[in-house]
Target: Glutamate-1-semialdehyde 2,1-aminomutase
Amino acid sequence: MHTGPLSQKLFATAKEMIPGGVNSPVRAFRNVGGEPFFVRRAKGSRIEDVDGKTYIDYIGSWGPNILGHAPAVITNTIHEVAKDGVSFGIPNPFEVEMARTITEWVPSVEKVRMCNSGTEATMSAIRLARGFTKRDLIVKFDGCYHGHSDSLLVAAGSGALTHGEPDSAGVPADFAKNTIVLPYNHPEALESLFAEKGDRIAAIIVESYPANAGFVLPQPGYLDLLCSITRTYGSLLIFDEVMTGFRLGKAGVQGLEGIKPDLSCFGKVIGGGLPVGAFGGRADVMDMLAPDGPVYQAGTLSGNPLAMAAGLAQLKELGKTSGYPRLEELGAHFEKGLRQLLSEKGVPHRLNRVGSMFCLFFTDREIINVDDVMKQDLEFFRKFFWACLDKGIYLAPSPYETGFLSLAHTEADLDDTLSVFAEALATI
Ligand code: PMP
Model:
C-alpha cells in the first residue's frame, strides 16, 4: 500500500457512501491500480496529504491552478469578495469585467456566456451550433474528451468512420447516432465524411490540442483544414479550449496557431480554482441564445461573483508581461532535462510539450492519434507512477492525462523531480 493510514481510512469510509469513493472517476487511481491519497492542504507547487506527506504537484487540480496552489492574489480576493455576498442570481460587475477580459484576449470571441463547468460549456456550445445551423449531426474526434454531456460521451473505434456508439451506459443510441467520431489527424476521413454528409453537419468540436488521451499535437495544416471545411459546408468549428485556454497564452491555441473558430469553450484557468466554464464566439451565433434568441441555456450560479473575481485575479496576474514567457521557460527547462535523462537511460519515449503542458509516453512510436497513445508501455507507466509518488512526485494517475506546470514551480522543483525520475527509472 502506497498511501498513509489516514488516507486509507478515509477512502474506506468514502467508498461506503460515495460511488467508488470519489466524486470524479479518475481520482480513484484505477488506471494505476491503487488507491488515492487525500489532501489536507496545498500551497505553491506542493500538496500535503492527510498523513503529512508532501508532493510536488504536476496536476494543479487538472489545470486551473496555473499560479500554483492557494496564491495570495486569489485567496485574498475570495476573502474580500465573499464579505459582500457569495451569490446573488442578479447581474454583478465582475461578470462584465470577465466578459471584457475574455473578449479582449481572445479575438474570435465577440460575445461570451459564463457557466459552471467545462461540461456545461461544450454541451451548450453544441446546442447553440445545432440551433444556429438547424442541423443535428456533430463531429468529434476519437480520444477527445469534452466533458460528460450525452452528445459528447461517444468515441467510436479508432480509424473507423462510424456513427457513434455511446461510451457510457445511459446514453440512448438514438441520441448518440447524431455524433460522428473520426480519427484525429486524418484529413481524408474528414474530407470524405463532409463530401457525404457535410450539409447535415452542425459543427465539428475539437480539443484545440487534444490533451485527454495523452497530449497530441495537430499535424501541419490540420487545424486549417477544420476551419476551411466547416466554412465550405456552412458548419461551425467549435474549439474546446477548456484545458488550453488562458494556459498556453492569452488567446490559447487559437492564438498560437492563428485559427479563428466560430465558437470556443473555456473553463479551468478562468475560475482560479472555483467552478467555472464559458463559451463564446461570433456575435451572430451567440445572439441565438436566450433571452434574445431561441436556444435555451441558463444557470443559477453562472457568473458567480466569487468565481468571477477569483478568475479575474488569476488572469490579471498571468497577463503581466512575465506570466506566459515564464511558463515557457519552466517548460523548456523541464523538457531539456527530461529528454537528456531518458536518452541517457535508453528509455524508449516520446515527449510532447507546449508551454506549461507536457506528456511523456513510454513508446518510440510517433504520436499521431489515440491509437498510438494506447500502444505505449502501460505497465512501465504504472511502475514509474508509483515509484515517483512514493518519493513525493505527484503525476497524473493515468497514462492518458497531461501534466501541468505552474508559476509556483521553480527550476529547483523541476531538477528535484528529474532526480526522482532517475531513481524511479533505476528501480523499474
Ligand atoms: N473539455 C476539455 C478539453 C476538458 O479537458 C475537460 C475536463 N478535463 C472538459 C471539457 C470538462 O470540463 P469539466 O470537468 O469542468 O466539466
Remarks:
- The pocket of 4'-deoxy-4'-aminopyridoxal-5'-phosphate is lined by residues 62, 117-119, 122, 145-147, 207, 212, 240, 242-243, 267 (CB under 6 Å).
- Residues 323-345 form the longest helix (23 residues).
